[in-house]
Specification:
The complex is a heterotrimer of chains A (260), B (234) and C (308).
Chain A (H helix, E strand, L loop, with lengths): L8 E10 L2 E11 L4 E5 L6 H8 L7 E8 L3 E4 L5 H10 L1 E4 L3 H4 L6 H11 L5 H14 L16 H13 L5 E5 L7 H18 L2 E5 L3 H7 L2 E6 L2 E7 H6 L4 H8 L5
Helix pairs in contact in A: 4-5, 4-6, 5-6
Chain B lengths: L2 E14 L5 E14 L3 E5 L6 H8 L7 E8 L2 E4 L5 H10 L1 E4 L11 H11 L4 H14 L16 H13 L5 E5 L7 H16 L3 E5 L3 H7 L2 E4 L10
Parallel strand pairs in B: 3-8, 3-9, 6-7, 7-8
Antiparallel strand pairs in B: 1-2, 1-4, 4-5
Chain C lengths: L3 E3 L6 E4 L5 H16 L5 E2 L13 H10 L5 E6 L6 H13 L3 E2 L8 E5 L12 E5 L13 H9 L4 H14 L10 E3 L3 E3 L9 H4 L5 E6 L4 E5 L5 E3 L26 E5 L6 E5 L2 H9 L14 H8 L1
Parallel strand pairs in C: 4-5, 4-6, 6-7, 7-10
Antiparallel strand pairs in C: 1-2, 3-11, 8-9, 8-12, 10-11, 13-14
Helix pairs in contact in C: 1-2
Classes of the chains: A alpha/beta (260), B alpha/beta (234), C alpha/beta (308).
């Protein structure tokens, strides 16, 4: 088992170039179990590029992404075989997309959506898969009787919660989230934030969450990375970065929040 | 009395990049010490930087210069240079803070918000919730409100929820930013009781109190921030 | 070696033997060899335009053309029957272009091309079964991206197949997939057995005959060498089962064969008959009789029973 103080993820000098254009540049950080890292910045600042590169979806031009695997210890995710990497991505990692349609199978039931990862790692007992799916539906506050319904009959907030259940069923230790509250209205957002915070705490999840919503970042993340033009310009404790921003761009970002 | 917190030669200035990069100095050369069992009032006129200084003690604001050492888990750690992990751990176990603002996720019941710091420390939920009930009762938050989010509460009620949350764990060091500001006499008395109890269990407390009565009732000393204001001794 | 078929009108060369030119047949044979070497793996091949529309067995016809020789005897079945349009025209096609002998008897055939059935009679080592396949990719139902399904095959990521079966049970209480029921080949590749009824899946397992699959539209070939392990996918608590019938064949009385339902009139009277016409005929020749055989008196009570 991983020691509490050992990093789960170590990103070193990560650079992603698109030709001459910078996607993200020289990003380094560590993440420990149970820790939530927020990545903020405006559209085009390189947040999503960084997230894709960290989450093994796009090999970076330079730099390494190392992960503390359960069995083999620290591994460079881009040095693993593709089979290993994909196994990692569907067991120990999870990815919550902004648009639930990107993360769900819309043409199969909620139960099958949750059960897919279990079946992918070899679970072949229908009864077990179903009861586990049912219990996860409960954890994300969706009524049991919706188990056999298609996600397309769900509201946006329910779809997002279903996506989370589908991802967490294999007890991943690292969760990537790309604007998870993006398309939701405010009341639904609040419920999701509450749910996420509870799950992060109860399951000791490490989370990297990309958002442009500083309020979401404040409520969910322990640490914050501020990106501008592909570079991390400020990185520290969330409340320190938001309450006493040092960099000109962060100050602009923070002062641009509408107060209510 | 054992020392718990020690600020040395601390300076703070703000640089406002969005306003022509003007630099506003707040104070410099601050020397501050806090020991177990004492309650020090931070004083100074409005705008002298009391709240800023307190936020620096909590590592909410950065220091421009100097060090702030905190006795945490048997070691001295400088929060001006400590890693975010260490600071979060210090806040979780050693350093409590009652701010003037309640920042919570909408929809979470008051009871859970108050119990949360204890749960985070590993106390089982039931024990933590029991203690949260006690505190809310003592602070006269009606039981019918416990399952509601405090975001709908009045200013005074929110302040008391904040206090309950701040006092639920027995932090060795506590920072109180105007804990009695919008409270009536009865509730102010309860807060004073809570501060006395914390002192007697050996907590080191620094507070900003807007009224003399409160200050005189619980404080063992005071610390005037004004004297460190930049230009104060010119 | 150039083999030609004489044009009956003037005795000149009309078609190359079995329609396809020799280079094409070599190409298909190479694909077949690879398919046999990697059981269940879909091998791409340069499918040719055939003188029949897609969906009429162009894949199976190309495979048959590549393996057939002058001494072969060909049988073609469509849904088990030798006498449907598709079966008759393919049989005639090879009778004309390869001048091979044809038969309706399973036991006499050396090559059997089939659309959607496996003969009831057990096949032998000296026989080849050629399947016509419409959609070769079993994962397509849930994953439309070809790049992704290839990767899933390569990495043995087959959880998705069970998602489909899960959906079946959740909706119908049992695995309701009755044809094109996915199988695991040699503990490695998940394969679509073509739209044969799942009744035939157990016959694929450990079969003595070579089984070849050709998908013309999608230009894929796959194969099961003799005696290959073929297992139908299922759940521990919902094991694979084949269809069963309460009725017997109305003609030959068989209770062990795959039965087709035949509607007899506008009153809803119906009967069941063997889908495998050769099997049924052989049984009738051997003296077996079902309740609706023409030399059996059709009593009213039997009619009513059949209508139930």
């Amino acid at each position: 088992m991983t020691q509490i103080n050992e990093p789960l993820l170590r990103v070193d000098d990560l650079t992603m170039m698109y030709g001459d254009r910078i996607g993200c540049k020289d990003v380094s950080f560590e993440l420990r179990p149970g820790e939530v890292l927020g990545i903020v910045g405006e559209s085009g600042s390189g947040k999503s590029t960084l997230l894709r590169s960290i989450s093994a979806q796009q090999e970076p031009t330079k730099g390494t992404v190392e992960y503390q695997t359960r069995i083999d210890g620290i591994c460079d995710v881009y040095q693993m075989s593709e089979a290993q990497r994909r196994l990692l991505m569907r067991t120990d990692w999870a990815f919550v997309h902004q648009n639930p349609r990107d993360g769900l199978r819309m043409n199969v039931s909620a139960g099958a959506n949750i059960g897919e990862r279990m079946m992918a790692i070899g679970d072949r007992h229908y009864g077990n898969i179903r009861s586990n799916a049912d219990s996860w539906l409960g954890k994300v506050e969706i009524a049991s009787e919706r188990l056999d319904d298609l996600p397309s009959t769900f509201s946006g907030g329910m779809q997002q919660r279903l996506q989370i259940a589908r991802n967490l069923v294999t007890s991943p230790r690292l969760v990537f989230m790309d604007e998870p509250t993006g398309g939701l209205d405010v009341s639904v957002q609040a419920r999701l934030l509450d749910l996420l915070r509870g799950l992060v705490h109860d399951l000791n999840l490490a989370v990297i969450i990309v958002t442009h919503d500083l309020a979401v970042a404040r409520l969910l993340s322990h640490r914050l990375m501020v990106m501008q033009q592909g570079k991390v310009i400020e990185h520290g404790l969330t409340d320190q970065v938001l309450d006493d921003p040092q960099h000109a761009y962060t100050q602009l970002l923070v002062s641009s929040i509408l107060q209510n | 009395m054992s020392e718990m917190l020690h600020a040395k030669n601390v300076a703070k200035s703000f640089t406002l990049h969005t306003q022509g990069s003007v630099t506003i100095p707040v104070f410099e050369g601050v020397e501050f010490m806090l020991s177990a069992g004492e309650c020090i009032a931070l004083t100074g006129e409005s705008g002298s930087g009391k709240s800023t200084f307190m936020r620096m003690l909590y590592a909410n604001y950065t220091c421009s210069q100097g060090s702030i050492k905190v006795f945490h888990n048997g070691d001295w750690l400088d929060i001006t240079t400590a890693s975010p992990h260490s600071i979060l751990d210090i806040r979780k176990r050693t350093l409590g803070y009652v701010s003037q603002f309640l920042r919570v996720i909408p929809r979470v019941p008051t009871l859970d918000i108050v119990a949360e710091p204890l749960v985070a420390l590993g106390t089982d939920r039931e024990t933590a919730t029991d203690k949260a009930r006690d505190l809310l009762t003592r602070l006269r938050i009606p039981e019918r409100l416990w399952q509601l989010s405090p975001l709908t509460f009045s200013g005074g009620e929110q302040q008391r929820v904040n206090i309950a949350r701040g006092f639920i764990a027995d932090y060795p060091i506590m920072l109180l930013d105007e804990p009695t500001a919008s409270l009536d006499a009865q509730n102010r008395a309860t807060v004073l009781e809570l501060i006395e109890e914390a002192k007697s269990r050996g907590a080191a407390i620094a507070g900003i109190f807007h009224d003399h009565e409160t200050r005189d009732a619980v404080c063992t000393g005071s610390f005037d921030v004004t004297s460190f204001k930049v230009g104060a001794n010119d | 070696m150039e083999q030609t078929v004489k044009n009956p009108a003037d005795g000149t060369s009309a078609y190359n033997f079995a329609y396809l030119d020799e280079q094409t047949k070599r190409m298909i044979r190479r694909a077949l060899l690879k398919a046999v070497a990697i059981p269940g793996y879909q091998v791409p091949f340069a499918g040719r335009e055939m003188p029949m529309p897609y969906g009429w067995g162009t894949g199976g016809v190309q495979v048959t053309a590549a393996v057939i020789g002058p001494n072969d005897t060909l049988k073609v079945i469509d849904q088990g029957a030798d006498d449907t349009t598709n079966a008759v025209s393919i049989r005639q096609f090879f009778a004309k272009t390869a001048q091979v002998a044809t038969t309706e008897k399973t036991a006499e055939a050396s090559i059997i091309q089939t659309r959607h059935r496996i003969p009831e009679k057990e096949l032998r080592e000296d026989q080849v079964l050629v399947y016509q396949v419409p959609i070769p990719e079993p994962l397509r139902f849930l994953e439309p991206r070809e790049t992704e399904t290839r990767k899933m095959h390569a990495l043995e990521e087959y959880g998705l197949m069970h998602v489909k079966l899960y959906e079946d049970i959740a909706r119908h209480g049992h695995i309701a997939t009755t044809y094109a029921y996915p199988v695991m080949v040699d503990d490695r590749y998940v394969m679509d057995p073509s739209p044969t009824p799942k009744f035939d899946n157990p016959k694929m397992n450990d079969m003595a005959a070579l089984q070849l699959f050709g998908a013309g539209r999608e230009k894929r070939i796959y194969a099961l060498p003799p005696y290959t392990k073929v297992k139908s996918l299922d759940f521990d608590d919902h094991p694979f089962e084949v269809q069963t019938w309460e009725d017997e064949c109305g003609m030959c009385g068989a209770r062990d064969s795959y039965l087709d339902e035949v509607i007899l009139d506008d009153q809803g009277n119906r009967m069941f008959v063997c889908s495998d016409t050769d099997y049924c005929a052989e049984r009738q020749e051997a003296g077996h009789r079902g309740p609706q055989h023409h030399d059996q008196p059709l009593s009213n009570s039997k009619r009513e029973k059949a209508a139930e």
